[in-house]
Design a protein that fits this description.
With 622 residues, the protein is of the alpha+beta class. The chain has four domains: 200 residues, Histidine kinase-like ATPase, C-terminal domain (Heat Shock Protein 90, 2-Layer Sandwich); 138 residues, Ribosomal Protein S5, domain 2 (2-Layer Sandwich); 90 residues, Rossmann fold (3-Layer(aba) Sandwich), CATH 3.40.50.11260; 122 residues, Four Helix Bundle (Hemerythrin (Met), subunit A). Helix content is 37%, strand content 20%. The protein is built from 18 helices and 22 strands. Strands 1-6-5-4-7-3-2-8-9 form a nine-stranded mixed β-sheet, with helices on one face. The chain has a five-stranded mixed β-sheet with strand order 10-11-14-12-13, with helices on both faces. It has a three-stranded parallel β-sheet with strand order 18-17-19. α7 packs parallel to α9 and α14 packs across α17. The protein is elongated. It binds adenosine-5'-diphosphate. The site of adenosine-5'-diphosphate has 16 residues, from α2 and α3.
């Protein structure tokens, strides 16, 4: 037996390990099982190269709990270590890297879990750790290394003859949780579910049947419980996979979800290594933000489901897995953002997604249009937030009109430009965000032969602004923002049939009944006699300012809810009937009634005002 001191500069690093990593204790299991997987992969490689004589046999990793002894065991049949190697890897190397890491990041409050502290993370949960190991080299005897959380360790010979390593954790009092089967199973499921070597944890009962009819017998057998799937499909070649493979894997990741719309299999070796599958989920029309739906792996070891820095923000809506050994894990978030590989990965993923969408669009436009409702959020959000994506997506982003027809940006401009170009040479794109409520405005716009788009999702406001900003010589205007004749401002203007004096009179009559205009006003316009006598409009600019203000969570002070009341001086009810009424009361009542009708059309007549209006109407009918 020999004794020695683990070579570190700091007198005792264990208290730091325990204290510092307090919040993320559970990663110890991931670290130890990953080491076991590495050792197993290495023996397989040596066997392939013919360096190991004979058959390497079964290479399953096993996790065991001994409740009485209060120990947790991780056993592998990997390459093992000689005494010399234990010295080198556990006594010096491992520790010095841990120490270096800790001294570097001790003061960095932004650091969050997810770094490999490797073997020494065992001391977060164990008072004492034994390593019993036998190297694959025939001439190397087994050794046992023991350390009880001091820089002091003991190394002694061991009787083990089988190749491989057993790590024994003497779990401490505070962490006795890790002696429960369910807890270990939970951790294995979270971190080890797709590790490339089979991992056994206990046994399970399998039921099979023998015989037929009356002689049919139920047979129960105890079999090893393998907790992982060592060959996840993201590691396979797309050519070897069917649609069903992809959808069933999706189910494995996200049980009880609706089937995905489509997916992208990522696979790149250079300039960085990355595999994975990204699924486009079925999103409802409302913009559901679903976080933590993409899992990040490094060589099939689960790292995190918080991939904020690695995946472009707009693609956080996707589901699936990304596996890359090239994403640095031992660092703080702020560092990750500036990491060159992470940036490249970001760009790569965004490019792949654009290519996939482009190919869906070009190969089967009908089916692309069918899915448009569900993918439009990704595409629009992506265009707004990612310049490169914007360039590509300009070719396949679609606008949908109220007749349910879809157009690319180019097609749409071509369609409306003749009839909808205004006097400033801007092409006006009319839209409705609530077609049911805006029905009369839509009808009026159609009278002018205008086309009306449907823009009814939360992202649309930003998207329209984005399209305008991108200098397409296009302006979006909501159908209720002005009277139909003014939606697309042209030079010609209709003459009013009323004299200046009569116009003043009409305006005055209406001004009395009008309330709560905000920053809006009452105005007289010479519209067609067939247009409505009174209309409510919400000028585009004011409305947008208000929407922006609401979006930023500001008080409704600066831009109150505003609308204009437009009176059609050419409508016979105004030009004839109203002005010819005898008493002033009668005129005022009639003006109020017409105004109420316009409000009703906009579902703006409510409460007492609505009741009064109904009463008045009933009296009229009598
Ligand atoms: P890392 O795995 O990042 O290299 P660790 O501290 O986890 O750091 O381990 C240090 C070294 O100890 C490993 O690189 C490996 O050489 C050796 N080692 C750890 N666990 C095992 C094991 N189960 N079998 C063989 N060697 C191991």
């Amino acid at each position: 037996m020999s004794k020695g001191n683990i070579s570190v500069q700091a007198e005792n690093i264990f208290p730091i390990i325990k204290k510092f990593l307090y919040s993320d204790h559970e990663i110890f299991l991931r670290e130890l099982v990953s080491n076991a997987v590495d050792a197993t992969t290495k023996i397989k490689t040596l066997a392939q190269k013919g360096e190991v004589k004979g058959d390497i046999g079964d290479t399953r990793i096993e996790i065991k709990i001994d409740k009485d002894a209060k120990t947790l065991h991780i056993l592998d049949k990997g390459i093992g270590m000689t005494e010399e190697e234990v010295n080198k890897y556990l006594n010096q190397l491992a520790f010095s890297s841990a120490e270096e890491f800790l001294s570097k990041y001790k003061d960095d409050a932004t650091i969050i879990g997810h770094f490999g502290l490797g073997f020494y993370s065992a001391f977060m949960v164990a008072d004492k750790v034994d390593v019993i190991t036998k190297s694959w080299r025939d001439d190397a005897p087994a050794v046992q290394w023991t350390c009880d959380g001091n820089p002091e360790y003991i190394m002694e010979p061991h009787s083990r003859t089988e190749r491989g390593t057993e790590i024994i954790l003497h779990i401490n009092e505070e962490n006795s949780d890790y002696l429960n089967d369910w807890r270990i199973r939970e951790l294995l499921n979270k971190y080890c579910k797709f590790l490339p070597v089979e991992i056994k944890f206990g046994t399970k009962t399998e039921t099979s049947y023998e015989g037929e009819g009356d002689t049919k017998q139920e047979i129960k057998t105890e079999v090893d419980d393998i907790i992982n799937n060592p060959h996840p499909i993201w590691k396979m070649k797309p050519a070897d996979l069917t649609d069903e493979d992809y959808t069933s894997f999706y189910n494995e990741l996200h049980p009880y979800s609706q089937p995905p719309l489509f997916w992208i299999h990522l696979n790149i070796d250079y300039p960085f290594n990355l595999t994975g599958i990204l699924y486009f989920p079925k999103l409802s029309n409302s913009f559901e933000v679903q976080k933590n739906k993409i899992q990040l792996y490094s060589n099939q070891v689960f790292i995190t489901d918080d991939v904020k820095e690695i995946v472009p923000e707009f693609l956080m809506l996707l589901h699936g897995v990304i596996d890359s050994p090239d994403i640095p894990l031992n660092v703080s978030r702020s560092y990750l953002q500036s990491d060159a590989n992470v940036k490249k990965i970001n760009t790569y993923i965004s490019k792949k997604v654009a290519e996939k969408l482009q190919s869906l669009f070009s190969t089967d436009r009908n089916s692309y249009e069918d899915k448009w409702k569900e993918i439009s959020t990704f595409v629009k959000y992506g265009m707004i937030s990612d310049e490169k994506f914007n360039e590509k997506a300009s070719q396949f982003v679609l606008l949908k009109n109220l007749d349910n027809l879809h157009f690319t940006l180019e097609e749409y401009k071509e369609k409306v430009k003749d009839n909808q170009t205004d006097k400033h040479n801007k092409v006006i794109y009319l839209y409705a965000n609530d077609p049911a409520t805006q029905h009369s405005y839509i009808a009026a716009a159609k009278e002018y032969g205008y086309d009306v788009l449907e823009m009814d999702t939360i992202i649309d406001n930003h998207f329209m602004q984005h399209i305008e900003y991108k200098g397409n010589e296009v302006t979006f205007v909501r159908v209720d923002s002005d009277t139909a004749d003014q939606l697309v401002q042209k030079d010609e203007k209709r003459e009013s049939v009323l004299s200046e004096k009569d116009q003043e009179k009409v305006k005055e009559l209406f001004s009395q009944s009008v309330k709560n205009l905000g920053l809006g006003h009452v105005e007289l316009k010479a519209l067609s006699p067939t247009d409505h006598p009174v209309l409510i409009t919400r000028p585009e600019f004011m409305r947008r300012m208000k929407e922006m203000q609401a979006m930023q969570g500001m008080d409704a002070g600066m831009f109150p809810d505003s609308h204009n009341v437009v009176i059609n001086s050419n409508h016979p009810l105004i030009s004839d009937k109203l002005l010819k009424m005898e008493s002033e009361e009668e005129k005022a009542a009639f003006a109020t009634y017409l105004h109420d009708l316009a409000l009703l059309n906009q579902q703006m007549l409510k409460g007492e005002a609505l009741t009064e209006f109904i009463q008045k109407s009933l009296t009229f009918i009598k």
